[in-house]
Amino acid sequence: MKFFIDTANLDQIKEAQELGVLDGVTTNPSLMAKEGITGKDNILKHYVDICNIVDGDVSAEVVATEFSEMVKEGEELAELHEQIVVKVPMIKDGVKALKYFSDNGIRTNCTLVFSPGQALLAAKAGATYVSPFLGRLDDISTDGLNLIAEIRLIYDNYDFDTQILAASIRHTMHVIDCAKLGADVMTGPLSSIDGLLKHPLTDIGLAKFLEDYKKGNS
Ligand code: E4P
């Protein structure tokens, strides 16, 4: 399972990269706005800054919603850095753009996916990644994890190459549940990765080991 961090915050990206288990970064226009990154030049520079911190894929989202504009914007994003993956929303022109990018060697992440049918379309259009937003489904009393399971089944039935990128992860149990369901990638906040570390018996056990070592070696 690949671990992506879902943020545009450079400090958090550095911290996750230093842990040594980071495989990539996902951003979206809301995350960029949260960091105060505005204006085309600043936005493009920020994507390059992120690519220079991490070794893996960096999703950069188009804001155009019309096919030819999406293509133009996506090509410009892809030109920025070889690690850039163009993030495209699941709308009709987005599906056309996914197919265009796939035919032209540009890697994509189909975002805002909330149903198995949308995920099937994204795979048919040749998306590199599909991003089902499980946390946002949970937010409206719908089982987000079930969507991951349904997409896994469909993709395995037909051997689609599209990777399932479990998105809108809110906490560590989401990460573990997605791993059990066979999601190829998860993207979440740094806290969802940090949570994997924690167990009170580890802390108690280490304290005891160090205490016993000191007794015999002081
Ligand atoms: C996916 O790539 C999105 O950026 C993200 O996971 C959305 O998460 P949210 O629902 O917590 O905003």
Automatic annotation (TrEMBL):
What organism does the UniProt record list as the source? Flagellimonas okinawensis
Write out the similarity annotation.
Belongs to the transaldolase family. Type 3B subfamily.
Q: What is this protein called?
A: Probable transaldolase
Native organism taxonomy:
Bacteria, Pseudomonadati, Bacteroidota, Flavobacteriia, Flavobacteriales
| First-listed, main subcellular location of the protein, grouped into a coarse class | cytoplasm
- Pfam families on file: TAL_FSA
Record localization? Cytoplasm
**Which Enzyme Commission numbers does its entry carry?**
2.2.1.2
List the PANTHER family hit by this protein, alphabetically: FRUCTOSE-6-PHOSPHATE ALDOLASE 1-RELATED, TRANSALDOLASE
**Alphabetical list of Gene3D superfamilies matching this protein:** Aldolase class I
HAMAP family documented for this protein: Transaldolase_3b
* Record key words, sorted: Cytoplasm, Pentose shunt, Schiff base, Transferase
